[in-house]
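name: query_chain
kind: protein
chains: 1
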Amino acid sequence: MSALDQISSKLQFAESKKHDLKKAFEDLQSHSSSLASLTLQWEDLQTHFDLVQSSIELQFERLKSKEIQLRSLEIALDRRAKELELKEWQLNRPIVPSGVKSEPLEDVPVNNGIDRFSSNANLRFCVTMDGRNLQLFLNENADNHGRMGNEVFAALRMSADPAKLVLDAMEGFYPPHLKNGVVEFEGAVVRRSCVLLLEQLTRVGPPIRPQVREEAARLAHEWKAKMGVEVGDSLEVLGFLWLLGAYRLTSDFDKNEILKLFENVVQHRQANELARALGLTDSSAGEFSET
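structure:
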């Protein structure tokens, strides 16, 4: 119970005691014929009590007002801190000279038209999203995945619990996939979004709460079972391996199986980063080429 709640409770208690005192005083007055010196009237006591109570209630209201002001200030300071962190990131962001094409972070086609992802407007929006809506946002901007890595990285850094946020965004990696209204996103689009999030979460490297790690481990075992024996979709393998790397789950699985799966994606441009996230050494996984 807060200090204000305690004060409020005691004010109510004082009011009930005042009624008890009034009854006792009236009982005393009924025997006042033998007490010639009893000239005090209940109205005098009532006036005194009312003045004291009014003074206390006034102070109580002032305390409540100050508490509300402090809460508002705390929220404003927190919002300002996030805005400053965003501005700092934008100032330190490398500038790509005009005419130089930026290379995508993964094998995702880049839309040469209007970039629908505005770091100024949408990055702040991403920070307030839950996992499901974050994935939907990335699905809708699938053509820009190659240019969104740094923005996603910055958004995750500003999240209070990026590991939980990304884990919640893994919904629909296997069917049924998330829908935009009544239209279901293609599996490849959903998996690219999930892989992008897992890659950037690995870059952030946040602390992972035990409960979140347990949830991630359960999800990893589910994905592993759904991949089956024959692996034909490299995005499935990438998603699974990045999940292990991002949530530090490599030790939960057989290393030889992980190496075998890694062979399916060794030509991926992020293979070296993935190998490091999985704790694979050059001697165990060989040299990884980047294409």
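note: The chain has two domains: 1-12+50-92, 119-285.
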